[in-house]
Amino acid sequence: MRFAKYQGIGNDFVMLADPGDRLQLGSQLVRALCDRHFGIGADGVIRVAPGSEGGDLFMDYVNSDGSVGEMCGNGIRCLAVFARSEGLTDKDELRIETRAGLKVVTMTGDGRVRVDMGAPIFDPVAVGVDHKGTDALHAKIELDDQVIEAACVSMGNPHAVLFHEDPRSAPVTTLGPAIAEHAMFPKGTNVEFMRIDSSDHVTMRVWERGAGETLACGTGACAVAVVARQLGGVEPKMVVSLAGGDLEIEWQGSLDFEAPVFMTGPAVAVFEGEIELDEVIRG
Question: Which pTM does this prediction carry?
Fold first, then answer.
């Protein structure tokens, strides 16, 4: 099977073109492809299929642990560049169907891709958090003998954002999975640790549901930007710095004014090749 490896500021993906819409991304196959020792190695697999509901293409995204993802911000930028490289489209603006709805992706001409990520969601039920209130920005998570405050928001997938004085030393690998799998989140959640550096700059680390700590998370950066804007008074246009690099995020909205979040960042081809599926699954 032919594949390509792409990355968006260190968030890496196995890309599969499926113009005939025939390939099934079973969990065993995805785990094998994403294995960094016996497979290709990636945070997830993206199958690019034809659109069926008005979109140009469909993004079938599965996390490295085999669980299905609703949306992936870095992945959808990679999809756009990959689709053009594979001849699946020649458009500069694409309408991509995802499990989180239709997203508009624009090639900016400078090696970067801009994505209309849609409006953030604050309603606790829609976010997927057990929290009483009209919005989920002030959720309280009881964990062992402590109560942790989290600003929860959905960007088509759930996020729990925690303020931390220094994300570099934040307990991402311990507190991250504890919150991600907490009973307050029946379907799990992504967890971000963020610090506001200035009026237009934020730093973060992330524990991704289904993948663990990654170098970057596009939807997570958008969620962090929304929280920084809503609770921290950050400017509408900001840079969000992650371990793998920077993303430019813009959100002109508020809790009372719905507006889309725009994300701009790179998408880079790493290598391409062929892999024997029987061998990688057996390995």
Answer: 0.94
